[in-house]
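Progress note, sequence design subtask.
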């Protein structure tokens, strides 16, 4: 099997097991991609902190209220782990109830690490743009890519993060950033995310001061981006 096909094997397996999205609604308020850094600097403990943080945030009442308070009372969500190559860990899943959200959170907690290579953010964004956002099972009012990580692009990619970001923003997709300010690049990472990553309608940064702070930051970030109210929440928005 070609290498590229292997990266998206979870989608095929999910399709064979049954669709991740039951056709319960004709349109959703938001399609949200969680793009989680699993590069070499993210050890096993840090990986667990990220997955537990995402799951705990989804279990929070204020996050579930945000998901279910829009005009369509529903959203799509998917999770991509990325390092040298992206891997789709959880395909598009429809959330229309608190039970749906709880089940998705439980799946996040059970995830195994996909890889631990370089920090190839450009490749991750390209795969999300070409292979995930083009395959929405239900139309969405808004599309958001939520990128978290502890380092800058270091793969010398054929196209820059800025270029893919601009392409997504031009298509109306919001790219938000959650830089984790721990490690060798802690002092410069927030500015790099601001300059090179975030873009599109109401794009913003929500830094985590450390991996231990990730759960609090991702919870605030979910409420902000799901509600689409970043300009009222005191967060650091994109200048573009």
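Output:
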């Amino acid at each position: 099997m070609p290498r590229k096909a292997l990266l998206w094997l979870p989608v095929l397996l999910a399709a064979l097991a049954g669709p991740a999205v039951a056709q319960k609604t004709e349109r959703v308020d938001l399609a949200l991609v969680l793009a989680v850094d699993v590069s070499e600097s993210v050890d096993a403990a840090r990986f667990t902190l990220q997955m537990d943080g995402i799951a705990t945030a989804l279990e929070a009442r204020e996050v579930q209220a945000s998901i279910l308070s829009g005009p369509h009372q529903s959203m799509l969500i998917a999770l991509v782990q990325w390092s040298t190559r992206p891997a789709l860990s959880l395909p598009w899943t429809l959330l229309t109830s608190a039970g749906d959200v709880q089940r998705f959170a439980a799946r996040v907690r059970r995830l195994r690490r996909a890889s631990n290579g370089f920090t190839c953010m450009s490749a991750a964004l390209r795969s999300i743009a070409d292979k995930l956002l083009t395959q929405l099972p239900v139309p969405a009012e808004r599309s958001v890519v939520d990128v978290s990580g502890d380092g800058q692009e270091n793969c010398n990619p054929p196209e820059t993060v800025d270029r893919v970001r601009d392409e997504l923003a031009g298509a109306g997709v919001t790219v938000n950033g959650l830089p984790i300010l721990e490690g060798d690049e802690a002092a410069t990472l927030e500015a790099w995310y601001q300059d090179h990553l975030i873009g599109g309608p109401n794009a913003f940064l929500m830094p985590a001061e450390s991996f231990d702070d990730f759960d609090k930051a991702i919870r605030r970030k979910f409420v902000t981006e799901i509600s689409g109210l970043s300009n009222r929440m005191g967060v650091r928005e994109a200048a573009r």
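The chain is about 40% helix and 20% strand. Work on this subtask will continue into the next period as scheduled.
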